[in-house]
Write a structure and sequence with these properties.
The chain has 279 residues and is an alpha/beta fold. The chain has one domain: NAD(P)-binding Rossmann-like Domain (Rossmann fold), CATH 3.40.50.720. It contains nine helices and seven strands. Strands 3-2-1-4-5-6-7 form a seven-stranded parallel beta sheet, sandwiched between helices. The longest helix has 24 residues.
């Protein structure tokens, strides 16, 4: 049965920009109180403050924490704050939208000054994959993931594609999807659903950091049957739709939110968006 989200709480990791930012706005429109974790320099504080003001304009509470979401200390502080904010009634949504990783090739390559180090690989996987497990563990231990709660992790089609700079992130996203499946099974007895959302190519600050992004975006636009790229609003709408139930029966999946882009790219709609490794 579909339910109102008004008065519930969400926790969004990676809340200040891109898809995470739009999910915050979309949920606030539904009456959801927003706790957001972001990691920004002082130069972006005015922009983040404006976002918090916009959220509160929807007559919801909005509490943001400027801290490293991959840090144990951050988890401890935010989980404690959520116990106070929610009155221990729990959060209805955890959204993992962390996009921070190393974008360099594994091996020497023309045009690249550096190759991937073990520290960079471990950091990328820890932030973009393992942190989902740690946040879920701590929220569950605190009793904040009640029956009907939803956990969403943002993945990408890059899991199955090769780009010169994307190897570490691709590995992290593959680990993330594996963690989603495992958490879904372990949280099933608690009636908590866990799914990965595979957004189509979406122009965000994180995407624009990928050195090859211009060509990748152009090919995705050609392939998408809708004739346009995915927008952050498309993903926010999907999160709100999937959250309007207490059922935990849709769980353990990677759900495409891409207008058919993923399947069209492998078919006859246009050229594959995969970046040729030998180029």
């Amino acid at each position: 049965m579909m339910k109102s989200l008004s008065g519930t709480w969400c926790l969004v990791l990676g809340a200040s920009s891109g898809i995470g930012r739009q999910i915050c706005l979309g949920l606030a429109r539904e009456g959801v109180h927003v706790a957001g974790v972001h990691f920004d320099t002082a130069a972006r504080q005015d922009e983040v403050a404006e976002l918090v003001t916009r959220l509160r304009d929807f007559d919801v509470r909005a509490e943001f924490f400027n801290a490293n979401a991959a840090s144990r200390e951050t988890r401890t502080r935010v989980v404690a704050a959520l116990c106070q904010l929610t009155g221990r009634t729990g959060i209805h949504l955890l959204v993992h939208s962390l996009a921070f990783g190393s974008l360099v090739p594994f091996l020497p390559r023309d045009g690249w000054d550096k190759t991937l180090s073990s520290r960079q690989l471990e950091m990328t996987t820890d932030v973009m994959a393992h942190s989902l497990v740690y946040w879920t563990q701590d929220l569950h231990a605190a009793g904040l993931l009640r029956p009907g709660a939803k956990v969403f992790a943002m993945t990408s089609a890059g899991v199955g594609q090769a780009l010169p700079s994307y190897g570490a992130v691709s590995a992290a996203k593959a680990a993330l999807e594996s963690h989603v499946r495992q958490l879904a099974c372990e949280l099933a007895p608690h009636r908590v659903a866990v799914n990965a959302l595979r957004a189509g190519v979406t122009v965000t600050p994180a995407l624009q950091l990928i050195p090859e992004h211009a060509g990748y975006v152009a090919r995705a636009a050609e392939n998408n049957p809708h004739g346009r790229l995915t927008q952050p609003e498309d993903v926010a709408e999907a999160v709100a739709l999937l959250a309007r139930t207490d059922s935990s029966w849709i769980t353990g999946n990677t759900i495409g939110v891409d207008g058919g882009e993923f399947h069209a790219a492998a078919g006859a709609w246009g050229p594959s968006p995969s970046w040729p490794c030998g180029s």
